[in-house]
């Protein structure tokens, strides 16, 4: 049993346009913020502001890559990609992590040069105005992008929202560093730049970890949840061999159900169709549910995949927790 194809294509197109609109808006904000931070950071010789500006510029570059990738990910299934191209979206989240690592290298190199030169940044009221203005922009972008990512089930938007959230903390750190410099502690500028490097490194690692879980097909839905939805359908005598994969807008589920062996083929098919509909409704998002029908005889009423239907691994728990929080 598969979802209605025209309806699914329509939902996919709306999802793609929603992600693209969000990425374009975020790109424009990132370019504005990067120009402000880099411009004044270079003029005032503030390493922390310049590092923050480089970070925002990398965000913009990642947005451009995201726009290209989502166009590829939205392509319909073809003979070489029968499950579609959505994995390209997850692969692109790894591209976001790569840009974060490039920014990390740039910041560490600047910190090393500052350590040897001993230069002192110039802090003026304009410095604080620039950072407070960009802080407000980053806060708005973080909330907007995270909500859009959850609504559209987009790994690209959620990964980028996580990065933008780290930018908020980074900007607050830079403002604290500017205050310290004004109070006669110029070394605070270098220390804040190193803190920014650590924040970026942690964000990159989190994105890489989540992408690895998705690409390794960690189950996005616990088997007991699927089993409960299937057993609620009249005529289902048993459920086993439940598997799920995917996420970010479409989940694939395959399962075996047992029905009365005396049913006609069309009657058994109707039950399987009801199970697919019930499971998709329980998941709350588009799902391609394949249901294999078996007679309710003893040899079919047991799991055969090498694990129990209720078994949940630690990796599965972590994946479900992160998926639910959007973290």
Strand content: 5-15%
CATH architecture of the largest domain: Up-down Bundle
Output the CATH homologous superfamily of the largest domain: Cation efflux protein transmembrane domain
Q: How far apart are the first and last residues' alpha carbons, in Å? A: 32 Å
Task: Please provide a written account of the structure.
By secondary structure, the chain is mainly alpha-helical. It has two domains: 5-215, Cation efflux protein transmembrane domain (Alpha-lytic protease prodomain-like); 223-325, Cation efflux protein, cytoplasmic domain (Alpha-Beta Plaits). The chain is 68% helix and 9% strand. The chain has nine helices and three strands, in the order αααααααββαβα. It has a three-stranded mixed β-sheet. Helix 1 (5-44) packs antiparallel against helix 2 (47-73), helix 4 packs antiparallel against helix 5 and helix 7 packs across helix 8. The radius of gyration is 25 Å and the shape is elongated. 41% of the residues are buried.
Summary tags:
327 residues, Alpha-Beta Plaits, 9% strand, disordered N terminus, disordered C terminus
Architecture blueprint of SSEs:
Layout: H1 5-44, H2 47-73, H3 87-117, H4 125-152, H5 155-182, H6 187-215, H7 223-231, E1 238-247, E2 250-259, H8 265-283, E3 287-295, H9 314-325
Parallel strand pairs: 2-3
Antiparallel strand pairs: 1-2
Helix pairs in contact: 1-2, 1-4, 2-3, 2-5, 2-6, 3-5, 3-6, 4-5, 5-6, 7-8
